[in-house]
Design goal:
binds thymidine-5'-diphosphate, single chain, 10 helices, nucleotide-binding, DNA repair protein RadA, binds magnesium ion, alpha/beta, six-stranded mixed sheet, hydrolase, Ribosomal Protein S5, domain 2, Rossmann fold
Length: 457
């Protein structure tokens, strides 16, 4: 008799190993391998014995419409509709990931309520909370009277049977994917095999009925339960809901979108009555700018198609240590080292006897190299003790040779700055055509050394 075979699946990345190991070959994480049976894995079992059925191919030209007018369901929550690319797409699957407690269920309850109010059939399936708890949350955010259908269920076959009854749903929310399990796989709920099989069954349901589905996924510490990463490639879109500890704002970020742009963000604020949209996030990340203080510079950033002003704060202080400290919050530490090195090598500014601390206001995280110039300005301002003009914005990339290089979307950055009352800019050379009006005085140095002279005198 054949022994039932088993395999070891990494709960972080899904790599299958024939035998147990401490470290996963696929992603290099430790202690993430969990034994899962293969006998009842996806695609085995009696279902596979059925006869093949021929499909009917269609040509591209016979398909009407294009991606632009994919039938969408708009929630009316602007910050959410922007990141999905204009609303949930019918027949598609969207994954919303994020840390536990960040507000995923709150966001989706609000979206569900907004859509149900417009007459759509919305089913909210929760595997984590009882129906009464979902209702409590709905009460708290003031939407308990909206006709959202609630179900507390974790078995995929039961969920599908529930959805069969009544009118075809427009949107089904599954909260969360890690609690779902299907009879098709025999591993424990939360393992890679179960999460994948359950997601696959729900995605198949979406494609065949035209209902949009949203899978909620917790980002988990390695080794516990399978993270949302293992279904990222199966779904049509991936959104991540992020926030910094101690701050109330939350950012919804598009990571993947088959039907829209992938670099959009939506900004929300968590209050005691749920999530509130923040249509003008620049105000949130600018700090208190009533008085000009040395060491602060405003960076005109871009998030997707959206300009955003962020305050950068630097503190440069004489160091008592042999090796001075470098600490960064909200930016790339190696990028800071690079800017410091360029300032030393090409501009004669010495930091070797100084501790350097860099912070981005509001707990925001910057990923753009366009922040280089703003960082350099904040560093020089702190080192010299000279405050920068309070109505000036900064952006531009610094190269290792000390040159200031152009960045994209200069006009959007300037437009947002003007809206918020800024009248001066330090920006890269080029873009002559857009530097009209109040920006004709914009300072456009080619070399970082010129900027240093301007700030430090
Ligand atoms: P929740 O949506 O349950 O998070 P997730 O589904 O991502 O795990 O949100 C939980 C947190 O949000 C919890 O700490 C309570 C807080 N919260 C508020 O501050 N205000 C509110 O109106 C609601 C509903 C939740
Ligand atoms: Mg939740």
């Amino acid at each position: 008799m054949a022994r039932p075979r088993s395999q070891f699946v990494c709960q972080n990345c899904g790599t299958v190993h024939a035998r147990w190991a401490g470290k996963c070959d696929g992603c290099g994480e430790w202690n993430t391998l969990v034994e899962e049976g293969t006998s009842g894995g996806i695609g085995s079992g009696p279902q596979m014995a059925r006869k093949a059925r021929a499909g009917t191919p269609v040509t591209l030209t016979t398909l009407s419409g294009d991606i632009e007018d994919a039938p969408r369901i708009r929630t009316g929550i602007e910050e959410l509709d922007r990141v999905t690319g204009g609303g949930f797409v019918r027949g598609s699957a969207l994954l919303v990931g994020g840390d536990p407690g960040i507000g995923k269920s709150t966001l989706l309850t609000q979206a569900a309520a907004a859509l149900a109010e417009k007459g759509h059939r919305i089913v909210y399936v929760s595997g984590e909370e009882a129906v009464a708890q979902i209702r409590l949350r709905a009460q708290r955010i003031g939407v308990a009277d909206k006709p959202v259908e609630l179900a507390a269920e974790t078995n995929v076959e039961n969920i599908l049977a529930t959805l069969e009854g009544g009118r075809r749903p427009d949107l089904v929310i599954l909260d969360s994917i890690q609690t779902l399990w299907t009879d098709m796989a025999d591993s424990a709920p939360g393992t890679v095999t179960q999460v994948r099989a359950a997601a696959q069954a729900m995605i198949r349901y979406a494609k065949s009925t035209g209902a949009a589905i949203v899978l909620v996924g917790h980002v988990t510490k390695e080794g516990q339960i399978a993270g949302p990463r293992v279904v990222e490639h199966m779904v049509d879109g991936v959104l991540y809901f992020e926030g910094e500890g101690g701050h109330h704002y939350r950012i919804l970020r598009t990571v993947k979108n088959r039907f829209g742009p992938t670099d959009e963000i939506g900004v929300f604020e968590m209050g005691d009555k749920g999530l509130r949209e923040v249509p003008n996030p620049s105000e949130l990340f600018m700090g208190d700018r009533t008085a000009a203080a040395p060491g602060t510079a405003v960076f005109a950033a871009m998030e997707g198609t959206r300009p955003l002003l962020v305050e950068i704060q630097a503190l440069v202080a004489p160091s008592p240590l042999g090796t001075p400290r470098r600490a960064v919050i909200g930016w790339d530490a190696s990028r800071l080292s690079m800017v410091l090195a360029v300032l030393e090598a090409h501009c004669g500014v010495r930091f070797s006897q100084h501790d350097v601390y860099l912070n981005v206001a509001g707990g925001y995280r910057i990923s753009e190299p366009a922040a280089d110039v703003a960082v350099a300005a904040a560093l020089i301002s702190s080192l010299t003790g000279l405050a920068l003009p309070h109505d000036c914005v900064y952006f531009g990339e610094i190269s290792l040779s000390g040159a200031i290089r152009p960045v994209s979307h200069a006009s959007s950055r300037l437009k947002e700055s003007e809206k918020l009352g800024f009248t001066q800019a330090v920006m890269p050379p080029g873009n002559e055509e857009i530097v009209g009006g109040i920006w004709s005085r914009a300072y456009r140095p080619r070399e970082l050394a010129d900027l240093v002279v301007r700030i430090a005198g």
